[in-house]
Amino acid sequence: MKYYIVAGEASGDLHGSNLMKALKKIDSNAAIRFWGGDLMHAAGGTLVKHYKERAFMGFIEVIMNLNRIFKDISFCKTDISSFNPDVIVFIDNSGFNLRIAKWAKQHHFRTNYYISPQVWASRASRVKAIKRDIDAMYVILPFVKPFYKKQGYDVTFVGHPLIDAIANRVQVGEFKFRDTYKLGNKPIIALLPGSRKQEITKMLAVMLSLVDEYPDNQFVIAGAPSQDYSFYEPYIKSNNVKFISNKTYDLLSISSAALVTSGTATLETALFKVPQVVCYKGSTISYQIAKRIITLKFISLVNLVMDREVVTELIQNDFNKKRLKQELDNILSSEIRKRLFLDYYELEKVLGGKGASEKTANLIYESLKS
């Protein structure tokens, strides 16, 4: 079969790569063309455009790059027509993918969606377009299935692919990892400032403002694969700060605590059982717009899945040195750590266990045979 997969950021690249591997196990002659990143490229297939070329965050940033975005949409449609796939698989990235899906459905392509757009967070009106344009939806968060059911749309919960990604990783070992990156023996506080330049700029300076307060800990920045060290370098002004690129899972596996920008990384950190403080700060205009359209009680996936506050969220003006130090002190204390570990184990059960990539690949493949 011929598969056209469209992913738009680092997390989509990860889950897209595992889906591609699973598809190739059941369809050895699969021809795959995709928009994604290095992980999907390593899984095989033909890369059309790297997500690094179109990583925009926030309403203002998107508006400033509208011309590029529309050119990409036009190019994607042309490329799909030329490839003529048996199925198009969209992965998250709703602003781009839902536009392509509308066109694709009109042109009689089979459309599948893996990892739902966050319509449950804002703009639920988009469900009408999803029902019209998407033949099958595979969701990875348990609360999303009943949300869609209320909207009259039947979707399939496949479990969360992060569980597989973490279980299948090649573990380096703590001693070797520390030795390779000259980390010494201090307990590690991991800093996960995000993957886009705009969010890193907003998050990292505040996170690093705590370094001098914790001389007995080693701070380590988890560098995103989409950014070079030269972008982070101006922020690093202490010998007690290390930088490690594209090794987030290995870093989390040996970390005592983490300061994490809201997003998929909050779930990854929880699945590694690392106590965390969730942080978010956007541009003032983007934040004011988001406040008016997002209807959720929480911003972190950990709290959303559990439907209660498991991890502390510091949002916008609450994300400052004083509050961050207070919350970091809390997660370094033994009582709160014990409670977090228990909550994290419960979270993993709620997420549905292993096998999301394989389940989704089988459902896609079987639908093409019918």
Quickly list its features.
370 residues; alpha/beta; 7-stranded parallel sheet; 6-stranded parallel sheet; 13 strands; 48% helix
Give the N-terminus to C-terminus distance in angstroms.
13 Å
Gross geometry: globular
- By oligomeric state, this entry counts as single chain
Question: Which structural class is indicated by helix and strand composition?
Answer: alpha/beta
Strand content: 15-25%
* Tally of strands: 13
How does the SSE layout of this entry go?
Blueprint: E1 2-7, H1 10-26, E2 31-36, H2 38-43, E3 46-50, H3 59-64, H4 66-83, E4 87-91, H5 94-106, E5 111-114, H6 126-133, E6 136-139, H7 144-150, E7 156-157, H8 161-167, H9 174-180, E8 188-192, H10 197-208, E9 218-223, H11 229-232, E10 241-245, H12 248-253, E11 255-261, H13 264-271, E12 276-280, H14 284-293, H15 301-306, E13 312-315, H16 321-332, H17 334-350, H18 356-369
Parallel strand pairs: 1-2, 1-4, 2-3, 4-5, 5-6, 6-7, 8-9, 8-11, 9-10, 11-12, 12-13
Helix pairs in contact: 1-18, 4-5, 5-6
